[in-house]
Amino acid sequence: MKMKWSFFIFCILVLSPFKNQAQKELITSKAMVVSAREEASQIGIEILKKGGNAFDAMVATELALAVAYPYAGNIGGGGFMVYRKANGEIGALDYREKAPLLASKSMYLDTNGNVIPNLSVNGALAIGVPGTIAGIFAVHEKFGKLPIEDIIKPVIALAKKGIVVTVKQEKQLQNYHNDIVIISGNQTLLAQEYKMGDTIKYPALAETLKRIMKNGKDEFYQGETAQKMVAFIQKNGGIISLDDLSKYEAKWRTPITFTYKDLKVISMSPPSSGGITLGQIMKMLEPYPLSKFGHNSEKSIQLITEAERRAYADRNYFLGDPDFVKIPHNKLLSDVI
Fold first, then answer.
1. Could you tell me if 27 and 21 are in contact, meaning their C-beta atoms sit under 8 angstroms apart?
2. Ranges assigned E (strand) in the chain
3. Count of other CB atoms within 10 angstroms of residue 200
4. Engineering a disulfide at 78: which of 69, 96, 194, 247 sits with its beta carbon 3.0 to 4.6 angstroms away?
5. How far apart are CA 10 and CA 81, in angstroms?
6. Residue 266 and residue 320: Cα distance in Å, rounded?
7. pTM for the whole thing?
């Protein structure tokens, strides 16, 4: 597979009193699971039908997307989760990738100090220490209702059964075919030529998920899977080690909250820049009558552009990983200029 620094953000809506539709007329009542592929959404729905809660469905759907639509799901990447429970409790989980212990500020530069094109985005040196498996187990440990076996089994079955290639998927595989072969070799599964309507089966992924289901997250971070992953990465020029994997931890964080007129917005906290940046933009726009300016009017576009320009300047200067950078949250989200 193509090795890239990837991330995943997943949203799941449940306990809605209305009927809702997912893709291809997939209809449920009292609950809704939204994802990029019908197969993944269906697995989430089945988890809810078995008595699982929203967090069980999230874990199952995220893992199912690793099979059905790797652009939106993974086991070798990372992500963020923001939640609000029915009782009003809110929280956030940071399971983004981390830089390996051997990472350095010059790792993507040549001997003259110039950036080596694409080295930071393609290949084994471009990836971070994966957080997804740690994240889903942290979610399940804190909020899960069903046994983890009940959540992972349908995903294993999906990997064995396979996924039918869509028009969009065919184009994606064609666009990245050369990169996949260069990075992972012509024997890798996705180096084959696939057309719309073909079925891609993932027997190796199914076996990996079986080991994770049996041995828990330690399988991914310390077990056979960890050893295979590190051997492959280092063989291809990467620097992730078993020490990196064994030390990885998902972290519970406090979400960023702010108001915009009569709305309360709950968003992800750093190391995601989204919550603070969005909050700054909305706070700058709040005093202005945007609706009176008109949608896509010159006045509204200029106002939004100027707000975004200032927020992103602050983003680039102030924001980073809170484990290493002190971020002036209150100042950045203050109503006072």
1. yes
2. 8-9, 13-21, 27-32, 79-84, 90-95, 163-164, 199-200, 251-253, 256-260, 263-267
3. 17
4. 96
5. 7
6. 19
7. 0.87
